[in-house]
């Protein structure tokens, strides 16, 4: 059988008084738990201006507050780039 000291080496507590950063990301993300970036990506298909909002947050380093937001914000920035490119090409074809 393992003694208490051997088990202590294998498992780390989720909240440690010596290192308060261990429990920093225990709380759920805003916007129904999926984060602002992913929520903006999904809502952007209805209202594309949400992609631009998330792009602004991405370039202003909003993800420094919570690194879990970075992927969703980057996906929204890519969606904004694709949408802008498609809109410019469509307008250029129609006008010219």
How would you describe what is shown here?
This is 60S ribosomal protein L18a-like protein. Keywords: Membrane, Transmembrane, Transmembrane helix. The chain crosses the membrane at residues 36-59, 71-95. It comes from Phaseolus vulgaris. The protein is an all-alpha fold. The protein has a domain at 30-95. The protein is 56% helix and 0% strand. The protein contains 4 helices and no strands. The chain has helices at 4-10, 35-44, 49-59, 70-95. Helix 2 (35-44) packs antiparallel against helix 3 and helix 3 packs across helix 4 (70-95). The N and C termini lie far apart (80 Å). The model has no long low-confidence stretch (mean pLDDT 82).
* First and last CA, distance: 80 Å
Which structural class is indicated by helix and strand composition? mainly alpha
The tally of helices reads: 4
Write the element-wise H/E pattern from the N-terminal end onward: HHHH
The amount of helix comes to 55-70%
Keywords: Membrane, Transmembrane, Transmembrane helix
Protein name: 60S ribosomal protein L18a-like protein
Organism: Phaseolus vulgaris (Kidney bean)
Brief account:
By secondary structure, this protein is mainly alpha-helical.
Write the layout of secondary structure elements.
Blueprint: H1 4-10, H2 35-44, H3 49-59, H4 70-95
Keywords: Membrane, Transmembrane, Transmembrane helix
Protein name: 60S ribosomal protein L18a-like protein
Transmembrane segments: 36-59, 71-95
